[in-house]
Design a protein that fits this description.
six-stranded mixed β-sheet, 3 domains, alpha/beta, Rossmann fold, Four Helix Bundle (Hemerythrin (Met), subunit A), Gyrase A, domain 2
Length: 477
């Protein structure tokens, strides 16, 4: 990809891209943005000779057509040959997504039409857009801030309701507003300190040291709370890990398939079928659940199977919850005991295959030392609702509730800048509380904290920050 650091001379040119994925579909979208967008897009539109109206649209008789209205046009390729009967919408600057003149073509889906239209636009003088360049221009032109731009990327990549919720919140500016409030409070504190330094003999007298200390402590606490939301973002993205573990042929794979509602794991009567961890992400509230089917736990001389068992041990160490599977009470007791050496997570004992030895709800003839096990049949579905309910209850006790009062911090970049700001505030507080430094020196920590928030919001070092953020975007966004 072209380096962004050398792009200063490219601002102000006109870019174009296909904004929808490759493949067969009903529609594809081609976008153009820049000062020459209307002119270059017009080169791909054949002049119309009539004012016939299509259903819900107008046929263009002049170019550019009316703003923000879908208009029917005939597209031509770079050689002037007819290409498609399409819709076009124009958005004059500054009232557009990028803040520039924007044209969006809605064409029939498939690779050929969209690619050929893009070729015609590039032939006319547009430049193929870099990944994320449309959103980058929106940031540069003040239509979005950097955090909102990252919210767009998170929204596109969301795989769960929790991630979608956090992304919408960030796109709506919740995190930006919280950080602006913190930044404003830091500046107020800095101004208060400057007043005390410059005008110590004014009528109000010296500023109460406890007042400054209380303000700094409150800001530090809010920063800590924001940083504390980051694990929730990881939960929303990756899911709470529920590991199914037990000896070979204990019904783990069948139970996984029953829990997720489809056949994702190979089910076989041959012990040792599962040689690696199989993971399935299922959306749920408040967090998605990542079910992990692991290799059967037993002593084995098979090097491949031993590798699978090592993977099982790693997943057990990372688990939020473990389902210990066994098809009889004796083996289940042994399994639970063995698993406690590999995980600190809660363990739910699940007696599988109860369809082979009676009703899932019947009391066991033996009472293991562990809590009464759940009984389930993956074949008949008996007991499955109880397992789902037990999983939800267990996860509720080991995973945090979604934080409603604060926006979620979703990226490591956010955490790094917030940690710097918090560290600078802590250094200021300690110096102020112990009177270890003169006030002008202690105030430099407040300035450094403001600087860290400015970097997070995209107010400084803009080129380097944009390079890091937009390199992961898709082309056309």
């Amino acid at each position: 990809m072209e380096a962004r650091s050398g792009r200063a001379d490219l601002r102000g040119d006109t870019i174009a891209a296909v904004a929808t994925p490759r493949g067969i579909g009903a529609l594809a979208l081609v976008r153009v943005s820049g000062p020459q967008a209307f002119h270059l897009a017009g080169r791909a539109v054949r002049a119309q000779g009539s004012g016939d109206k299509g259903q819900g649209t107008e046929t263009a008789t002049t170019w550019p057509p009316a703003a923000r209205r879908a208009t029917r046009v005939t597209l031509i390729d770079a050689d002037g040959a007819p290409l498609d009967d399409a819709l076009v919408t124009v958005f004059p600057a500054p009232h557009s997504a990028t803040g520039e003149d924007v044209v969006e073509f809605s064409v029939h889906g498939g690779a050929y039409i969209a690619t050929t239209l893009l070729t015609a636009l590039v032939t006319a003088g547009a430049r193929p857009a870099l990944p994320g360049e449309f959103t980058e221009r929106a940031v540069r032109n003040g239509k979005l801030d950097l955090l909102q731009a990252e919210g767009i990327a998170d929204l596109i990549e969301a795989r769960s309701a929790a991630t979608h919720r956090a992304a919408l919140q960030q796109l709506g500016g919740a995190l930006s507003r919280q950080l602006e409030t913190l930044r404003s409070a830091l500046l107020d504190l800095e101004a208060l300190l400057a007043y005390d330094i410059d005008f110590p003999m004014e009528d109000d007298g010296p500023i109460d040291r406890s007042r400054i200390l209380a303000a700094a402590t409150a800001l530090e606490s809010t920063l800590a709370q924001l940083i504390g939301t980051f694990p929730q973002a990881a939960l929303g993205r990756d899911g709470a890990m529920v590991v199914l573990a037990g000896p070979p042929n204990a019904g783990k794979s069948s139970l996984l398939n029953a829990l997720v509602g489809e056949s994702r794991a190979i089910v076989s009567e041959i012990p040792g079928t599962t040689r690696d961890a199989i993971e399935v992400l299922v959306d749920a509230q408040p967090w998605p659940i990542r079910y992990v089917d692991t290799a059967g736990l037993r002593a084995s001389e098979d090097p491949v199977e031993r590798l699978g068992i090592e993977v099982s041990h790693r997943r057990l160490a990372e688990a939020h919850l473990v389902l210990a599977c066994g098809d009889d009470l004796v083996s289940l007791e042994q399994t639970v005991t063995a698993l406690r050496a590999h995980t600190a997570a809660p363990i739910l004992a699940v007696r599988t295959k109860v369809d082979r030895d009676g009703d899932a709800g019947s009391p066991p003839t033996e009472t293991p030392r562990t809590e009464r096990p759940l009984a389930v049949s993956a074949q008949t579905g008996a007991g499955l609702d109880a397992v789902h309910a037990a999983i939800r209850a267990a996860l509720a006790s080991v995973t945090p509730e979604p934080t409603e009062s604060l926006p979620t911090v979703t990226r490591a970049r956010h955490v790094a800048s917030l940690a710097v700001a918090r560290g600078e505030l802590a250094a200021f507080r300690e110096a102020w509380e112990g009177a270890a430094l003169p006030a002008p020196v202690a105030a430099t920590h407040l300035r450094a904290a403001v600087h860290a928030l400015d970097e997070l919001l995209g107010g400084i070092d803009i080129e380097e920050i944009l390079t890091r953020v937009f390199r992961t975007f898709c082309v056309g966004k």
